[in-house]
């Protein structure tokens, strides 16, 4: 089964202009360099950057230089293009060259009231405009402690995918809310358990084709823990917040991705 490894940096509401330009160039240069010295190609390992919206326009202006990575929006509107002041939708983002978008990140859900129905409509918007969605799901600490993790992620998955048609398989990112930005990473046992569960649920919901869906882990991923997480069978990549804001720390995670792909037997690619 061919599942790419995806290492994605979520810059959130950072950085300012000067820091962002050098971060971008550091990441691009580092990824290009690694690609030039590795047999692992982009079908096997993809690196993505999700910057804030102003950066998307800027990146579109240096698209050739950015050939080593993909990029996208952290959120897309439910609205189509039109009289919706303040909104930025999938069609516009795609038109400016982005290929990807996050949908349903926990900060959108908890701070900005995006619910599961809205997530489903945003996934639909992305797919309608050839933007590849990364559906983000995850339980809060309270939900985990009361034994509701499976139920919560299953519901978020099912509702988030509810407007997908046959043959549409958004990438999934499991991000336990209690591990995001806290420095507390879920243990490999906890991650393996939820990812295995999600793989089965995806196949129940979407058929065996979902075996090819990458499931990323997010929540305090850093260079030091990336290899252990990426080494798990059902972990196909990482969604990285804090550690994506410095080229060196992000590239350390990219390195773990390259190592994990080149260490695998070719037939598992
Ligand atoms: P973190 O953020 O790596 O800072 O925990 C992850 C995310 O929010 O996607």
Give the gist of this structure:
Helix content is about 45%, strand content about 15%. By secondary structure, the chain is α/β, with parallel strands linked by helices.
Throw out a few tags for this protein.
8 strands, single chain, eight-stranded parallel β-barrel, 269 residues, binds 2-phosphoglycolic acid, 43% helix, TIM Barrel, disordered C terminus, alpha/beta, globular, 10 helices
Overview of this structure, please?
43% of the residues lie in helices and 14% in strands. It has an 8-stranded parallel beta barrel, surrounded by 5 helices. It has a single domain, classed as TIM Barrel (Alpha-Beta Barrel). Helix 1 (17-36) packs parallel to helix 10 and helix 7 runs parallel beside helix 8 (188-206). With 269 residues, the chain is α/β, with parallel strands linked by helices. It starts with a strand and ends in a 6-residue tail after the last helix. The chain is built from 10 helices and 8 strands. The structure holds 2-phosphoglycolic acid.
Topology, element by element:
Elements: E1 5-10, H1 17-36, E2 45-50, H2 53-60, E3 70-73, H3 90-95, E4 100-103, H4 106-112, H5 116-128, E5 132-137, H6 141-145, H7 149-160, E6 171-174, H8 188-206, E7 215-218, H9 223-230, E8 237-240, H10 247-263
Parallel strand pairs: 1-2, 1-8, 2-3, 3-4, 4-5, 5-6, 6-7, 7-8
Helix pairs in contact: 1-10, 7-8, 9-10
The chain binds 2-phosphoglycolic acid.
2-phosphoglycolic acid (PGA) binds next to strand 8.
């Amino acid at each position: 089964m061919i599942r790419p490894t995806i290492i994605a940096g979520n810059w959130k509401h950072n950085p300012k202009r000067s820091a962002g330009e050098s971060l971008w160039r550091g990441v691009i240069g580092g990824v290009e360099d690694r690609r030039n010295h590795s047999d692992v190609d982009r079908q096997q390992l993809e690196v993505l950057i999700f910057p804030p919206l102003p950066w998307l326009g800027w990146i579109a202006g240096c698209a050739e230089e950015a050939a080593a990575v993909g990029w996208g929006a952290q959120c897309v509107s439910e609205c189509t293009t039109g009289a919706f002041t303040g909104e930025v939708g999938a069609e516009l983002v795609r038109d400016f060259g982005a290929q990807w978008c996050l949908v349903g990140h926990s900060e959108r859900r908890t701070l900005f009231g995006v619910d599961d129905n809205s997530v489903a409509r945003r996934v639909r918007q992305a797919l309608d405009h050839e933007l590849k969605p990364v559906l983000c799901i995850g339980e809060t600490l309270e939900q985990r402690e009361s034994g509701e993790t499976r139920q919560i992620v299953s519901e978020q998955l099912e509702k988030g995918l509810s407007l997908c048609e046959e043959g549409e398989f958004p990438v999934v990112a499991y991000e336990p809310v209690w591990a995001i930005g806290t420095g507390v990473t879920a243990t490999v046992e906890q991650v393996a358990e939820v990812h295995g569960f999600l793989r089965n649920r995806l196949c129940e919901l979407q058929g065996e084709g979902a075996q090819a869906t990458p499931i990323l882990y997010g929540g305090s991923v850093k260079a030091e823990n990336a290899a252990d997480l990426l080494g798990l069978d059902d972990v196909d990549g990482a969604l990285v917040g804090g550690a994506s804001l410095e080229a060196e720390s992000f590239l350390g995670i990219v390195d773990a991705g390259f190592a994990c792909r080149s260490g695998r037997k070719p037939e598992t690619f």
